[in-house]
């Protein structure tokens, strides 16, 4: 669980958070979030705790939870020295509340406040985080991020409902957050990768004990700035039941591994081993560094009752069953990295003006859109369309993957296409979820009239 807190309450606050990620839907009304300084234990003692920025002083911030159809009402107080905002990653519609500064709102200045009100139309797992062009990498790298769960009326059967935030941290020799937020190597390359990987605000690995044979519903989010996490299951057979907030037919991931890009959310269900003391593990796979254990689930105590086959929640009836690709407005975006420090990414041959430039396209509400992302860089990009859920199209035909996405990983030198129906009026951001890329100009917008 998160362990960030003020200096005065560093120890006492830990116990208070042990219930946060397991609380059910909260009472209606306006919830306050205060962005302020806090502390996080990222290095073992005798090293001092790390100074961070967090919502209510925590990183990740407090879990927000409500019921589908309720109003999300959050008043943000900025007690920091930097302007900020709140973006609700994965939530569809309501452009004025999307939190992208300066595209749809002015950033909340130091000492200021802003009230976010929007309906939680979709159930699922969402992120909340700042989105201030040029500053987001620092705001996120210092700890400003959190999770929101919107509970469906009839959840799938499970013994354990576990919400988990993954992150990474980059510290200097004194245990402070490194300040190279605009480094050219990150802006043009892989982004800011931190060697310390954390689970719910504590360095991995995390140990969790549950009843033998317990069915676990795991809601997992990658809150890192840039690290694409390949997460493998060992000694458990997982089934993906939702991707980027939207339920899907349950399926087994290839090699029991999920590719969680920054901002991605996966919901999985699996059964723990029935043998007392048996362990199943989440393992972070990488070609660039040794594998590391993220979480160990240990079977302990009285056995849970046996359950039938895993079944996902009902799919979202508000999303279209089909997209007429033949009538879609099509736009390919050729993406090229900056060639020198201080430069910007280019889109279709011109340095990007990001959110201050003209719209990439304008369409009437209800128009199908197809974006093609052509990656000319030597590193992956993670292209994210705000306010909508999109289908990832197959590379060789007109079919699509059987789940919805907010963001899509485009490997170096490759092209990926997505399709969606522009059903929400407003000015919507399209950008790279590797935040150092976005800050260096890999961003634009489209308008739905």
Automatic annotation (TrEMBL):
Transmembrane segments: none annotated. Residues 48-154, 353-449 form the Plastocyanin-like domain. GO terms for molecular function: copper ion binding; oxidoreductase activity. It comes from Methylosinus trichosporium (strain ATCC 35070 / NCIMB 11131 / UNIQEM 75 / OB3b). InterPro entries: Cu-oxidase-like_N, Cu-oxidase_C, Cu-oxidase_fam, Cupredoxin, TAT_signal. GO terms for cellular component: outer membrane-bounded periplasmic space. PROSITE patterns: TAT. This is Copper oxidase. It comes from the Bacteria.
